[in-house]
């Protein structure tokens, strides 16, 4: 009887080790608020940038805009009032095309423009021709509206797969994600947004926020976020400046 249990224990241990090894080979699952990605422990092609590895207290505030015209103005007001001259806005091309005055204000203020794609869909559900069409159509519109060609892209809902990454890379784009999600898209309350950002922010961080009308508390939380980060010694930079100044933290996708 004792021999049976010893043998069974050894066999169970071998099975456990095999399962762990298999999971490591397949990757680690990570879920954000809209999708699940698989991070592979080896280089499998173009990757998304989530943050950068740096000791400098630099941080990138990023804002996605896909619809509405009531929230972007107050957010720009706060950035101006607080003297924040560096931030990155990821613009949906249909929104940019229908709101040229707001886009002009963003550009004139010197903020960086990235693409948020054309249709606000999960691009991993498209075939390769459709993915390419969505990225290039957005590129054409944003280049015309801003008079600058974007080279950063954050896909709608943060959704992508390895095909999306590969096609974006072939079109000259770097895919940008985030390491700190403010959760402002959930409208959880101003103080919850502030507390979440200030507790999670770190050197080289990319912070996700939104300037679409559905996010009603971002402009209220932003002053406290800026003051809190500034008091901790952080300097605000664009995503491009963050990438240029340090090693990027990227994760490959299956």
Automatic annotation (TrEMBL):
InterPro entries from the UniProt entry: Glyco_hydro/deAcase_b/a-brl (IPR011330), NODB_dom (IPR002509), PdaB-like (IPR014132), Polysacc_deacetylase_ArnD (IPR050248)
This protein's GO CC annotations: membrane
GO MF term (any one): hydrolase activity, acting on carbon-nitrogen (but not peptide) bonds
GO BP terms: carbohydrate metabolic process
PROSITE patterns (alphabetical): NODB (PS51677)
Domain NodB homology per the UniProt entry, residue ranges: 57-237
Keywords: Membrane, Transmembrane, Transmembrane helix
Highest taxon above the source species: Bacteria
Membrane-crossing residue ranges in chain numbering: 12-31
NCBIfam families according to UniProt: spore_ybaN_pdaB
Protein name: Putative polysaccharide deacetylase PdaB
Organism encoding this protein: Polycladomyces abyssicola
Lineage: Bacteria, Bacillati, Bacillota, Bacilli, Bacillales
């Amino acid at each position: 009887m004792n021999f049976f249990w010893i043998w069974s224990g050894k066999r169970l241990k071998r099975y456990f080790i095999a399962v762990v090894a298999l999971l490591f080979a397949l990757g680690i699952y990570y879920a954000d608020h809209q999708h699940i990605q698989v991070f592979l422990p080896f280089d499998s092609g173009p990757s998304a940038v989530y943050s950068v590895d740096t000791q400098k207290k630099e941080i990138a505030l990023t804002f996605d805009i896909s619809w509405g015209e009531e929230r972007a103005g107050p957010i720009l007001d706060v950035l101006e009032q607080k003297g924040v001259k560096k931030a990155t806005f990821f613009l949906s091309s249909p929104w940019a095309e229908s709101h040229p005055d707001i886009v002009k204000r963003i550009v004139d203020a010197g903020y960086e423009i990235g693409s948020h794609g054309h249709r606000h869909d999960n691009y991993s559900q498209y075939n390769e021709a459709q993915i390419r069409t969505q990225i290039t159509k957005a590129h054409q519109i944003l280049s015309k509206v801003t008079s600058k060609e974007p080279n950063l892209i954050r896909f709608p809902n943060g959704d992508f797969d390895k095909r999306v990454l590969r096609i974006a890379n072939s079109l000259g784009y770097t895919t940008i994600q985030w390491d700190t999600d403010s959760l402002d898209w959930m409208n959880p309350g101003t103080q919850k947004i502030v507390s979440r950002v200030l507790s999670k922010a770190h050197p080289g961080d990319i912070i996700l926020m939104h300037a679409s009308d559905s996010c009603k508390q971002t402009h209220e939380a932003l002053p406290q976020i800026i003051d809190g980060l500034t008091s901790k010694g952080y300097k605000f930079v664009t995503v491009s400046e963050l990438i240029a100044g340090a090693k990027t933290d990227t994760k490959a996708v299956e």
